[in-house]
Amino acid sequence: MKGLNNIDKLSLGIFPTPVHRLDRLSEKLGIDLWIKRDDLSGLGLGGNKVRKLEYLLADAQKQGAKLIFTTGGAQSNHAMLTAACAGRLGMRTILILKKRGVTACRGNQLLERLMGTEVRFVDTDDYADIYAEMDRVGQASGLPYYKIPCGGSNALGTLGYVDCAREIGEQGTHFDHIVCAEGSGGTMAGLALGAKLFLPGTRVHGMMVDTDPFDVITPRLMKEAAALLGQDTEITTSDYSLRDVCGPGYAIASPEGNAAVRLMAENEGIFLDPVYTGKAFGGLIALAKEGAFKPGERVLFLHSGGAGGLFAVEMQ
Ligand SMILES: *Cc1c(COP(=O)(O)O)cnc(C)c1O
């Protein structure tokens, strides 16, 4: 199958994901609020990484890879979904994870156990150590291997969310604002670039759940993804907006995030997670309170998944 600009892409998830209005929360927050259900993307417990992996694993397959490496924290949703997607393709996955967060057999660790995924932990804060370990293990295996970066956030992975923006356009409802979580950057960068290309009049807001320099990462990924599409697109700060919702730290629950998880669960019967989507939705609520959405404007929240984390990370 071919994606944007004839680039190879696999069909792994179930798309398009639903878009629907959140009637009760619209009333409660005094805005016209909708949700894009990428938590229902069809593999694992769903989530945003499937769209990226459709591009990344197509590239791995084309290069003849038999072994896939990726990384993240101990409860990485991306790592779990990589194992799920690669397994469907008959590829072996080895996860080389940072020894950070909940390493016990809970949440995504449990799901990886069920899939028979090989998981190794490296006690480091530097991804350079992790990628060096992938090369050591890969070379020792004798198999052709492929390394997927943390969060699948390189230019190729970012195309998955350019696709998502186009899909939102094809679903026929115009949105003035799209709000998503930003953790490694590909989702936000893809949506912002996709909005620039396919959704005139839509502004994308990235809710930063980590402390990386997203003001640098976001435009860089947008520019690199545009280059893959054969476009020399000028990216300016008016093409996206960012907000810090990290609170006490990456993968540590915040009071605002937890309140947002509860509000969504109580009113709409939809579960967010404390690490990404809860904090992002907390940011959306803050924007609404600050009057960032004008009367009559339509707001779309991207539910990017994360259910695994709900069963691992402590919430009060
Ligand atoms: C990875 C992830 C994100 C963030 O997406 P990035 O492309 O890494 O910025 C958001 N929500 C969930 C549930 C995730 O797993």
Describe the structure.
By secondary structure, the protein is an alpha/beta fold. The protein has 2 domains: 4-48 and 153-311, 3-Layer(aba) Sandwich (Rossmann fold), CATH 3.40.50.1100; 49-151, Rossmann fold. The protein has 11 helices and 10 strands. It has helices at 23-29, 49-62, 77-88, 107-115, 127-141, 155-170, 186-198, 214-228, 255-268, 277-289, 307-310, and strands at residues 19-21, 32-37, 67-70, 92-98, 118-122, 145-147, 177-182, 203-208, 241-244, 298-303. It has a 6-stranded mixed β-sheet with strand order 1-2-10-7-8-9, with helices on both faces. Strands 5-4-3-6 form a 4-stranded parallel β-sheet, sandwiched between helices. β7, α7 and β8 (203-208) form a beta-alpha-beta unit. The longest helix is centred in the middle third of the chain and has 16 residues, at 155-170. The site of pyridoxal-5'-phosphate (PLP) has 20 residues, from α3, β7 and α7.
